[in-house]
Amino acid sequence: MSVEQPLWHALTAYRVLTLIYALCLFVYSFHDYDRPLGAAAYMAVLTVWTALTFRMVSSAERCTRRFLIGDLAVAITGILLTPLVDTHDRIAEGTPTLPSIWTAGAVLGFAIKGGWRWAAWASTVVCAANIIERGGFAQDTVHMLMLVWVASVAIGYVVEVARASERTLARALRIEAATRERERLARDIHDSVLQVLAMVQRRGAAIGGEAAELGRMAGEQEIALRSLVATGLVTPPRAAADDRHDLDDATPPASPPGPDPAPADALPCVPEDSADPCDLRALIAPHAGSQVTFSEPGAPVILPAAAAGELAAAVGAALDNVRVHAGEGARAWILLEDEPNAVMVTVRDDGPGIPDGRLADAEREGRLGVALSIRGRLRDLGGTAEWISAPGQGTEVELTVPKPALNAKDRT
């Protein structure tokens, strides 16, 4: 049941009860009317209208805008008809109009159907009709009308909040259901497909030859599948139809044992001047491979698209250095961290490390890969790039970008 459905049921009951109340007032004051037959004719029309439209206010689908306008017109007609059938003295004393508090039901229909804006419009029309009926701004009339206006607008606002809450709850339930299904699939895949791929990788490496290339491809598929069931972000590995064709021709392609850098076209195209939101995980995930492990938080790391592209490019440059300088058997690890005030990406390898002063010497010699591809990008983003290395202990690159700097870059 919708969270607003009880409000429609309450409005249905309200219209019936207020009709009974208005009929009781009419019968009690029948002989006081100046033209009682005219008043009786309107009350008959009001009774028939309420009976015929009983189901129209039972749900949002049945309560159309055309019906609401007609319902409000019936109420306004009764208000404006009151001076024609009642005496001037009774009107001056503040006696109720012909529809009395039934009119509020018409306004509440607008509030529940369209929110506080519709309620404000409908209650304003009712207020104007009551002022015309009284012939001026009487104090008691103003108080009553303000009560109707404020109450209808407040109910309309509550309805809008309830609808937003319902949408949020529905979205949360869908996410929970999807998460449970992904966990179930992950368990099934782990117990079947991943085990087979891991076995193929080990057997292929042991046999060698074409089987070694097949094992390498199985290892890449295993890593991609693990990332897919964990985050749903990984892109297809680079082992494509061309590789399979080479295997069929018994001419396995040469592939270096070191970390495989993702090609430029594997990363999504990010315009340099774009400010749209982007999940950084989706840009870094394609770098994962048989010798590159990617660890990321369980929630999206949202950055402006241009900034995310620059940071992902810096990660790619760091992995290129691992492939070129750390040796054929080196492994690399990427760690993405989303801190409250900064985004940090750490690229670590188990290579031979960097001798002291080597980076400064490379920059003086004109080798600007580190200076431009990594430090330059981070500097443009307001961040820093730090190298932690010792001979024989591998190298660790920390890429840090403060979020205030990213926000300022996004605004510009």
TrEMBL record:
Ranges of compositional bias, category Pro residues: 253-262
The residues covered by the DUF5931 domain are 1-170
Record's keyword terms, sorted: Kinase, Membrane, Transferase, Transmembrane, Transmembrane helix, Two-component regulatory system
Give the matching InterPro entries.
DUF5931 (IPR045975), HATPase_C_sf (IPR036890), HATPase_dom (IPR003594), Sensor_HK_TwoCompSys (IPR050482), Sig_transdc_His_kin_sub3_dim/P (IPR011712)
GO cellular component terms, semicolon-separated: membrane
* Region feature Disordered, mapped onto this chain: 239-272
Identify the residues that the record assigns to the Histidine kinase/HSP90-like ATPase domain, covering every copy.
Answer: 311-404
| Key word Lipid metabolism present | no
Q: Which residues cross the membrane?
A: 12-31, 37-55, 67-85, 142-162
Supply one GO molecular-function term.
protein dimerization activity
- Please verify whether the record's keywords include Membrane: yes
Task: Give the matching PANTHER family.
Answer: NITRATE/NITRITE SENSOR PROTEIN NARX-RELATED, OXYGEN SENSOR HISTIDINE KINASE NREB
Q: Can you say what this protein is called?
A: Sensor histidine kinase
